[in-house]
Every structure is written in C-alpha cells, then in structure tokens.
Design brief:
alpha/beta; eight-stranded mixed sheet; Nucleotidyltransferase, domain 5; 39% helix; 3 domains
C-alpha cells in the first residue's frame, strides 16, 4: 500500500489536512477486494464521492476502511476483527423481519444495511461485540423505527441465546414517545412470530408478547420498556438497550450513565442511542457526537474505539437553500423512484416552516442539524463553540480587566465574569473567565437534584475551577464567601480592575461592603431595554466576529446556549424572566460589555456625573501633577 500503513498517524483535527486528500494518499484496493459487504461498499462509495455525505459520515466511513486495513495488516495493537459471518446473520434476519404496516419485510437501502452490518459485524477477539455504544442520528421520516425493531428483536432472539434472565431495554424521553415505539415493537414481534421461519422459535422459547414486556418462559429473557424520566435503572443490567430520541433535553444525563454502568457486568452488551437533532444543542447526545468527531479526526490515537458514531447531517446552515445536498441528512432520498416526490415534500415542509416562523424546527428535525431557535436565540451554536480555546492567550496576572456581576435570586447562581481586553496585530479581543457560586437551597441541599433540574454539571465545574457549590446547611449562597473569594482572586492575580459593573436593582450587602472597604470603581447598570440593548448587541457582534474567547466552561457555555432574547420595538436584551434557563453568567457578561467596547477609547461607556469641584472629575494624582507642572502665577 502506498502512502503509509495501518499505524500511520493521521490528524484531521488541526484543519491543515482534508479528509479527501488523506484518503486519496493511500491505495485501499486490497480492502475493497477482500470485503464486499454493504458497509464497506457504502464506505467506498462515500469516500470516492459516489454518494453525497456530510463530514461526520465521511469520518465514520474512513475509520471503517482504516480499521479493515489494520485487520489485513495484522496490526498487533488492533484487537478487533470484522466478522462477515455476523454481517450475514443480521442481514438475513432483516430480510425476514416484517414491517408493521405491510406485514412483509421491506427491502433495505444500502445505508440501512451498512448500519446493521457495522453494529453487529465488528467483534472483539472473544467474539463479543466491539461497539459497546452506538450513536446514530438521522433526519425524521427516514425509517429509523424499522431499524430499531430489527436490532431489538435480533438481539433478543439471536444475540441473547445462551443467556438466562437477561434484560433488553427500549427507552424514550417520556411515556408518550415510548408508547409509540413500544407499540411498533409489539406489532413487529407479533408479525414475526407468525412467519414460518420464526414460528417454531417463538414456540420453543415460549415467548409471550404482552403490553408491558416481551418475555420467554423458557430462559426468562425479557424486553422491557422504561421512560428515561420515570424509569428505575439502578439495579438493571441490560444486554442490549435502545434509547430512542436520545437528543431530547428531557433525558437526564444520569439516565444514560445508569444504563451504561449497569451493562458493564454483561459480556457483549451494547447501548444504541438514536435520534434526530433538536433545537437545544446543550445535551449529552450532541456532546458525545462532538467528542467522537474529535476522536475520529485523530485516528492514530485510537480513542473511542468502543463507540460507533453514524450521523447523517448537513454540513452548514446555508444548505437549507440547497435541496440537492439534503441527501446528507436524508439518506432515504437515495431511492431514485421516490426522489422527486420526497424532495418536493421536504421543500414544502421548509417553506411552511418559514412562513410560520419555525425554520429552526425544520433545520433540526428535517435536516438533522443542531441549531438553537433562530427567532429567539442569543447566539448561534457555531459562535458559542468557535470561541472556546484550549488555554488562555496569556497569564492574567497584573492585567487590566472588567468585572461583571450577577447576584443570585432564589435558586439562581451568583456569577462573576472577568473580561481581559487585549490586541493581536491591531485586532481588539477579549478573554473571558467565569466563576459561579451555586446555591442548593431549592434542591434541599442536594447538588445532584440541582444538576438534574438545571441540566448543568456543577460538580465538574467546581473541579475545573469555574464554580463553588454552597457549603451552608441551608444551601444558600454565603455573601461573605463571595466577597472573600472575589478580593482574594483580584489580589492573587494583582488584577487592575477598571470597573466592576453590577445590576442596579441588586444593591446587596455585598455591594455595600465593596463600596465601603475597597477602592474598586463600581458601576450600577440598569437592567432595562434602554441600558442593555447596546451591550447585548456588542456581545453578539464580538462573538460573531470571533473576538471573544474562553476556556471550556460548562456553566458559561450552558448559559450561552440557553439565553434567548426579549424584544421591544428596536430594543433587545436577554430575557431575564426565563429564570429556569440559568443564564446568570450571560447577564454578567452583558454587564461588562457596557464598558469593554470602549476600552481603547478616550471615554467610558457610562456617562460620569460631573463634579462640582473646579477640577471636575480629575483624580488626586492628576490634580497634583497639574499643580507641579502647569500651575503658575
């Protein structure tokens, strides 16, 4: 093979190499000659440009081909095989599994066969499945329910054989969503048990298809349904689990963790998460996609080898007006005989969504692309994520900064944002550091409940130096702790604080203490449209222009994701009535942007009250200088 071997280091994460160029540097003829299964054919057609696909799908197919290359070269550090016999088993089963509507098996498209082949074909040396986890995302109306039924029943009737008293799980965010998927599964099972090929098997296993479970009276293996919110997963150990609509923000992070941790004791286990995109990108399902994308880009590191990611999505939002690209997120458009009618239907759906002001729903559900609600969102997903940097651009010690302050009300956090202005080649930039004080009073002092309610990982943020969780028995925020922390941080880093800007309507004991005991310049900022419109616009502009940066910070990023706008004529501000969204860090950030844009100017963003003194607002030092240098008779 030219261009390198199976351990050649390929790193696409830095952006200085294109996947297509890297792929074309190596001859994979041996791979394609040896493996002619649907997954490998699909990979070849995507990587050769015969099938239009998005970047994430190209990455997944590239890993498949590279891994097959490792198998052929007997890479001693690669402990997996691609078992074509297992591929044949799952595809043969799929050809017999009936559709609930027609009662007959549906012919599968190449992409569907590829999905089934990859989930079941890749094995470990002991014959168990390689992929403990599968993350699958595709636009709505692409037949994912049919694939879910095939995988569930295959794992129950084939993979579970030889096991006793094992459980399989079908889960969804809430009972209503789960009910739809469960009914389809029951109908499929009942139809399957009447087929000549499986009638005897159902009878031998004494399988009862019931309203709440599918159970064998012979080996006691069962399929159960549990909604993500109401289910009790603590004591369950699932051989195979499907979490449908895994991208919903109604699925607590703890649900996925509990299901996954309980599976560890079962050899050959697998959790299959499948979903379309949603309009809240700050969910675990999408974070897993982002992590796996980075893993696949750094192919040589072999991180995430136990996770399969297959995502059919668009590459950018501009493609909403490029229907010829929609095959990326809607692989069902590959059916040539239905292409025209289906594409026309999706275009109609787009136009209707636009007319109704629900373009974001169309982008997320029909184009399977994560996006916040465009009509209301404070910032775009790309703006938020492109601002994240690996490390600060400088040491903050001794630097000038602005401090934004948002004080806790009830169960909100008290957030402090430091803004450090700087320049690179004449471009004005700002580095942001955020710190929050987290109350637990509303959660009876239980931080786990607080995290579940707010959907923010406060304990992780505390370990990373971005938060402090209340230590009071009441769970309230101790203002003395906040006061001491702030002054200690300023003193430790010898910060030159230009202004501390706070909510004028939150003049607390803490503000009075700072006013009386420190020389910090405190600026009260009214929290209304007139005062906040310009700072809000500036924050959005600086993010859009790539002039704001911050280190990875779950609290700040979560607040930016959750922030939505309120409008009044031509004025805007972050909607403070949506207190459940936990946007306190954004409020503090907006506060400092009443001043940051003017840092390089000869004037402040706030009109300073004119002093009655003959020296106006001049400082003592300026007055002394005037007497020494300029004053004369």
């Amino acid at each position: 093979m030219k261009g390198g071997d199976s351990i050649n280091r390929i790193d696409l994460s830095k952006g200085n190499q294109k996947l297509e160029d890297v792929y074309n540097e190596t001859d994979y003829a041996d791979v394609f000659a040896t493996y002619r299964d649907p997954a490998t054919v699909y990979a070849r057609q995507i990587l050769n440009g015969e099938i239009l696909a998005g970047y994430k799908m190209k990455l997944a197919m590239f890993r498949h081909v590279r891994d097959l290359q490792r198998v052929l070269e007997h890479d001693p550090e690669f402990p997996y095989i691609y078992d074509l016999q297992e591929v044949k088993y799952i595809l043969a089963f799929a050809q017999l599994c009936p559709d609930v509507d027609t009662g007959y098996p549906l012919p599968l498209m190449l992409w569907q066969e590829a999905l089934l082949s990859l989930t079941q074909g890749w094995r470990r040396e002991d014959g168990s499945k390689r992929y403990y986890k599968a993350i699958v995302s595709v636009a709505r109306t692409n037949g994912k329910t049919y694939l879910v039924n095939i995988l569930m029943l295959y794992n129950y009737l084939v993979e579970a054989q030889g096991h006793y008293n094992v459980k399989l799980l079908l889960s969804a965010p809430v009972a209503q969503q789960l009910g739809v998927g469960w009914n389809y599964l029951l109908l499929t099972a009942n139809r399957l048990r009447e087929t000549p090929e499986f009638k005897k098997e159902f009878s031998k296993l004494k399988v009862d298809v019931m309203e709440t479970t599918i159970i064998s009276r012979t080996n006691r293996n069962l399929i159960e349904k549990q909604s993500a919110q109401a289910g009790n997963f603590d004591s369950s150990h699932y051989l195979f689990a499907i979490v449908d609509e895994a991208g919903s923000d109604n699925i607590p992070n703890e649900t996925i963790t509990k299901i996954s941790s309980g599976q560890v004791q079962i050899p050959g286990h697998q959790m299959f998460q499948i979903s379309t995109a949603y309009t809240n990108p700050d969910v675990m399902f999408r974070k897993q996609q982002m992590f796996m994308t980075e893993c696949l880009e750094r192919d040589w590191e072999r991180i995430g080898d136990d996770t399969l990611m297959l995502v059919w999505d668009q590459d950018n939002l501009e493609e909403i007006d490029q229907p010829e690209t929609w095959l990326k997120s809607n692989p069902i458009l590959g059916l040539s005989e239905k292409y025209d009618s289906m594409l026309s239907s999706i275009i109609s759906e787009r136009d209707t969504a636009r007319a109704n002001g629900r373009e974001s729903d169309f982008i997320s559900r029909n184009l399977n692309t994560w996006i916040q609600d465009v009509a209301l969102s404070f910032l775009s997903v790309d703006d938020i994520e492109n601002a994240v940097i690996d490390k600060p651009p400088f040491e903050i010690d001794g630097r000038q900064c602005y401090i934004g302050w948002d004080f806790s009300v009830r169960d909100d956090t008290t957030s402090i944002v430091f803004g450090f202005p700087y320049e690179i080649d004449g471009e004005k930039l700002v580095y942001i550091h955020q710190f929050s004080f987290v109350p637990t009073a509303s959660a009876n002092g239980n931080i786990q409940i607080k995290e579940q309610t707010d959907k923010l990982p406060y304990r992780k943020a505390q370990k990373e130096g971005h938060a402090l969780i209340s230590a009071l028995p009441s769970g309230d925020i101790d203002e003395d702790v906040v006061y001491d922390w702030l002054l200690s941080f300023v003193e430790e880093h010898q910060l030159q604080v230009i202004y501390l800007i706070y909510d004028q309507y939150r003049v607390t004991k803490l503000i009075r203490m700072l006013d009386e005991n420190t020389d910090l310049d405190l600026i009260p900022l009214k929290q209304n449209f007139m005062a906040l419109t310009e700072p809000t616009k500036e924050v959005r502009k600086w993010f859009n222009q790539g002039r704001i940066h911050y280190e990875a910070d779950d609290i700040l990023k979560g607040a930016l994701y959750h922030a939505i706008l309120s409008e009044d004529n031509n004025s805007i501000m972050v909607d403070k009535k949506k207190r459940s969204l936990k946007i306190d860090a954004v409020d503090a950030l907006v506060n400092i942007f009443s001043e940051v844009p003017y840092h390089w100017e000869a004037f402040s963003g706030h009109k300073e009250a004119e002093s009655k003194s003959v020296f106006g607002n001049a400082s003592d030092e300026e007055i002394n200088t005037w007497f020494k240098e300029d004053f004369s008779f």
